């Protein structure tokens, strides 16, 4: 009888050890953040490819308008300020999250979303103005590369705003639970990544584009 009890106890202990093994094996700590870093690296490759294409064909105007003729640096500077300010306000949201202040976290996230929406509005206005002037992706290789690169970044900002709105709903429903804190960290990396990419766009596309 004691042998049976010992065997049963050993089997249960082995099953428990196996369960613990599989939990740690398939759900390692910080795996979500690691996976998101891998995603960001893949996004880096996408933007690197788009920058490379623009570097090759960015001076192929095909008799059409050049960047110096099309770009309004004052408008682009205002748009850049919107995005950089959104990065600051998101940082304030993260500080509020660390202080476990739900209302301030939501407030700063909402302000971040407004700055992001303002950035998209100005970018859409710029695109509309260019199309109204006849500067479309079909005009030249330069404009094809320009609309693809800047449009891809704008699409990422759009997804970021949708994600931000979803997080605001989740925060209102569940508060600063560990899952929401982790999601805020992931969105923070994504949002700051878009700011870095935009600095590259502003410098490489717009500033260098107005040079003769």
Automatic annotation (TrEMBL):
One Gene Ontology term from the biological process aspect of the record: aerobic electron transport chain
Pfam families linked to this entry: COX3 (PF00510)
Keyword Electron transport annotated: yes
Membrane topology: Multi-pass membrane protein
Localization (cell): Cell membrane
Annotated Heme-copper oxidase subunit III family profile domain residues: 1-210
Function: Cytochrome bo(3) ubiquinol terminal oxidase is the component of the aerobic respiratory chain of E.coli that predominates when cells are grown at high aeration. Has proton pump activity across the membrane in addition to electron transfer, pumping 2 protons/electron.
UniProt record similarity statement: Belongs to the cytochrome c oxidase subunit 3 family.
Assembly, per entry: Heterooctamer of two A chains, two B chains, two C chains and two D chains.
Protein name: Cytochrome bo(3) ubiquinol oxidase subunit 3
């Amino acid at each position: 009888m004691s042998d049976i009890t010992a065997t049963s106890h050993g089997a249960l202990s082995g099953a428990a050890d196996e369960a613990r093994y599989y939990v740690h094996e398939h759900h390692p700590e910080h795996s979500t953040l690691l996976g998101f870093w891998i995603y960001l690296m893949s996004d880096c490759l996408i933007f690197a490819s788009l920058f490379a294409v623009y570097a090759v064909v960015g001076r192929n105007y095909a008799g059409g308008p050049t960047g110096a003729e099309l770009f309004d640096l004052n408008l682009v500077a205002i748009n850049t300020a919107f995005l950089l300010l959104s990065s600051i306000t998101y940082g304030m949201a993260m500080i509020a999250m660390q202080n476990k202040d739900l209302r301030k976290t939501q407030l700063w996230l909402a302000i971040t979303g407004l700055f992001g929406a303002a950035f998209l509005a100005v970018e859409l206005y710029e695109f509309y103005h260019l199309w109204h002037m006849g500067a479309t992706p079909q005009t030249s290789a330069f404009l094809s590369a320009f609309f693809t690169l800047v449009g891809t970044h704008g699409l990422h900002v759009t997804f970021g705003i949708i994600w931000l709105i979803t997080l605001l709903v989740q925060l209102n429903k569940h508060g600063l639970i560990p899952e929401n804190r982790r999601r805020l960290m992931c969105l923070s990396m994504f949002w700051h990544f878009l700011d870095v990419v935009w600095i590259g766009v502003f410098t490489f596309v717009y500033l260098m584009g107005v040079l003769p």
